[in-house]
Amino acid sequence: MTETVIADPDSGLTGAQLAARHGLRVAGARPSLAEYTRQLWSYRHFIAAHSRGRLVATFTKARLGQLWQVLTPLTNAAVYYLIFGMVLKTSRGIDNFIAYLCIGLFLFTFTQNAVIHGTQSITNNLGLIRALHFPRACLPLSVTLTQLQQLIASMVVLFGIILVTGEPLTMAWLLVVPVLLLQSLFNAGLVLALARLGSKITDLKQLMPFVTRTWMYASGVLYSVTRFTDLPGPAAEILQLNPLLVYIELARDALLASAPSAIPASRLWLLGVGWALLMAVGGYIYFWLGEKEYGRG
Amino acid sequence: MAEQTLATTTAAPAEPAAPQHRIPSVIADNVHVVYRVHGRGSPGSGSPVAALRRIVTRTSGPAVREIHAVKGVSFVAYRGEAIGLIGTNGSGKSTLLRAVAGLLPCERGSIYTAGQPSLLGVNAALVKDLSGERNVELGCLAMGMTPEQVRRLTPEIIEFSGINRRGDFSSLPMRTYSSGMSARLRFSIAAAKQHDVLLIDEALATGDAQFRKRSEQRVRELRAAAGTVFLVSHALSSIRDTCERTIWLESGVIRADGPTDVVLKEYEEFSKTR
C-alpha cells in the first residue's frame, strides 16, 4: 500500500494537499512555546477554579471540613516536637526549638505535598485530559496553587506559634513574602517536571514518599543545620546547595531573632533566586516538550 | 462480495455531491495507531523496591504490550456531516476517535483537523468529589470560555441535562450521581459550546429515551451550525436517526464507508452470520 492515497477523488489531491488547501492542522500538534504561554494565560480562570475545586474536595468527607487545613500542620508539629524535641533532644543549641521546628516543617510540607500531588497531577486527571482540550500545564500549576493556599492557612498558625513562643514582631518578617514567592516558583517548576515524569513512569508515585522523606532529613527541618556545616570536605558544601534548606533557612532568618544561621544571608538569597529561576524555566520547558503525549496510555 | 464493492480507502460517499461546496473538516491520511498497555497484576510489581529496580535498570514494567489498533485508515469528513462509526467491540472505533481528537499520536500517517476536535466519552469523568454546578464551571472554563460566559450558561446547562428534575442534585457531589445522570451532565457541558468537530463515544447510550431525543436534537443543531459530528454507538437506531454517513471499522481497517442505510444493512448481515 502506498503511504498516501488520493483523499479527494474529485480534485485528485492527497490528504496533505487537501489539508493545506483548506487550512487544516495536524491533530494534537504542539504549539510553540510563546503560543503555549499565551494559551496558558487565557486559561488562568480554569487554573484558579480547578485549584479551588481541589481544595474544597480534599476535606469534603471529613466532618471538621476546612478546619483540617489548620489542624493538619498543628498535629504534625506536635508529633515532631514530641519525638525530636522531647525524646531525641535534637534541640540542643537552638533557643526557640518549637518555632524553629515549625518553620522548617511547614515550609517543607509545602514542597512535599506539591511534589506528591504533582507527580499524580496528570495520571489522576486523565478523564479531564481525554475529554477536553486545554494546555496540560494547567493541572500541575493548579496543584501548586492549591498547596500555596494551604500554606497561607498554615502560615497564620505559624505566626501565632512564633509570637506565643516569645519572638519579637520585626520588619524582617516582611522578608517571608519574597521567600515564599521564590519557593512557590521553585515548586511550580518542580511539579511541572515531576508531572511529566509521573505520567511516563507510573512507578514514581510509589517512590515519592521515600524521596521526600530523605529530602526532609537533608533539609535541616528537625535539627540545626550547623550539624551539616561540621561535616568534613565537600559533603557540607553539597548539602548546603539543597534548595529546601535554603528556603527554610531564609524564612528562619526572617522570623526568628535567635536563629543560629551558619550560612551567610547573601549566599542564601543568591541560591534561592537561582534555584527558583532554574527550576521554573527548566520545568516549564520540559513539561511543554511532552505536551502532546499526555492522555496517552 | 457485496462488502468488496463498498470497501474503500478513498472515502467517497456514494451520493454525487458537488465537491466545490464541501469543506473538509477532518482528513485522515493512512492512519496507524499503536498504543501501549502497562500490565499490572503480576505479584510484587507494585512494591517500591520493584519500582526502584525498574527505574534503575530502565526496563519498562513487567508487561508492556503494544496493540496495533488502527491500521491504515483514510477518510475525509466534511462540514455539516454527521458520521456514524460502527464495528464490533475492539475494532478500533474509540482509538480512532481519540487519534482524531489529538489525544493519541499516530504511529504512521497523519490526521488533519479544522479547529480543535472535542471528544465526549463515557469515561470522561470530571471531578467526582465536586458538585455538578462546579463541574459545569470547570468544564466550561476548560473549553476556553470566559467566566462571564460560564455564569450565563450554567443554568442553561443544568436545565438541559435535567439532573435537577429529581431534587436539587446540581449542588451534590458528582460521585452521588447515577451513571446516566453524570453522562447527561457531561454531554450537556460539551454540547454547550459550538464545536468545529465533536466526537461522541457512546455518551448518549446511558441516557433515558427522553434525554436521547433531546441530545439527538442538539447534535442536529451542532451540525446545522457547520460542525462535524462523529458518533460511535452500538445502538444502530441512534446512528440511523442522526447520521447520513457511516464508517464501518473491523479490526482496525475500514470495511465500508457510505450512506448509513447501505452500510448498516451490510453490518447487520455481517453480525447475523457471526
Main attributes of the structure:
heterodimer, A: 297 residues, mainly alpha, two-stranded antiparallel sheet, 3 strands, 66% helix, 2% strand, elongated, B: 274 residues, alpha/beta, six-stranded mixed sheet, three-stranded antiparallel sheet, 9 helices, 9 strands, 36% helix, disordered N terminus
Could you describe the 3D structure shown?
The complex is a heterodimer of chains A (297) and B (274). In chain A, a hairpin with a 4-residue loop joins strand 1 (6-8) and strand 2. Helix content of chain A is 66%, strand content 2%. Chain A has a two-stranded antiparallel ribbon with strand order 1-2. The two termini of chain A are 28 Å apart. Chain A has helices at 15-21, 33-42, 44-58, 68-87, 97-119, 126-131, 138-164, 176-200, 204-217, 226-229, 234-240, 243-255, 265-289; strands at 6-8, 13-14, 25-26. The longest helix of chain A is centred in the middle third of the chain and has 27 residues, at 138-164. The model of chain A has no long low-confidence stretch (mean pLDDT 83). Chain B is an alpha/beta fold and 274 residues long. Helix content of chain B is 36%, strand content 26%. Chain B contains 9 helices and 9 strands. A 6-stranded mixed beta sheet of chain B has the order 5-6-7-3-8-9, with helices on both faces. Chain B has a 3-stranded antiparallel beta sheet with strand order 2-1-4. In chain B, helix 4 runs parallel beside helix 6 (179-191), helix 5 packs across helix 6 and helix 6 (179-191) packs parallel to helix 7. The two termini of chain B are 16 Å apart. At the A-B interface, strand 1, helix 1, strand 3, helix 3 and helix 6 of A face strand 1, helix 2, strand 2, helix 3 and strand 4 of B.
